[in-house]
Give the backbone structure.
Amino acid sequence: MEQSPVSLERMRTFVRVAERGNLAAVARETGAGQSTITRHLRELEDALGVSLLTRTTRRTALTDEGTRYYAHCVQILSLVEQASQEMRDTRQATAGTVRISCTGALGVLHVSPLIYAFQDQNPGIRVEFGLTDERIDLVRDGVDIAIRLGPLSDCAMKLRSLGESERLLVASPEWLQRTGPVRRPEDLRDREGVRMSRVHGSDRLVLRSVMGRNHVVPFHGRLIVDHGLAAREAFLAGRGFGPAHRWLVEDCLRDGRLVPLLPDYTLPSAPLSMLIAPERTTLARIRLCVEFLAEQVGGIPGISR
């Protein structure tokens, strides 16, 4: 029987299955039938004479040979994409899809308008914008750019610092009127807070005075939320006080719906970073988007370079 040729199409199928670990997911993503995906993999393995994947009913994993072949395929496909990109004219070079992931509240309030402006300047670029506070795998999830708050451990990704996100304590005027004034950190010990889940150390507040002294205050409350916008609404509803990124509450502070607590004390800021999938940095549309966002994010309230 004649061996099937090793084609770019079959290599792309193999790479996506390796990254997603699921044939059905790749079939949905590409619009091809699962039988087509299975056939591509079988033909590729027949052509190479080795098994690239081990399959169970729930998961597909790489063999040792598959792991080595995957690394070569990624390089080859990246070179093919880069070569094609360089041969296109200017209009074609800035066309295509950019997939962006961003933490939920920041994306809704501030990054979305930046994306609208970017598309106005680059009408040939399609943006897929995903909002999640979960840590994602850029390669596995097919994401080009991720904007994230907090410390990062994605050492395999290209990292670009966007600055520091200022945090402060806030509450509603009604909450303050009901619970009494807050003049020093100790006044917060028995007050009801609104806490964020999945945040390390969220059971305490570290407040630094103008003299540089740290005050550690226990932080507790009956309401625990997993989204910044939910915390914002809880503050506005008078459910308690809590730390917030300035970009989350700037408009509420400006119109008096929220007020800062202990303005002479500061909370630790959080790093804001952009992660870029390394193999995508050679694409003109990705570079355009990265540079645009890096320049514009500095205009978000409370983001300091």
The longest strand covers residues 158-165. The mean pLDDT is 90. The chain has eleven helices and 15 strands.
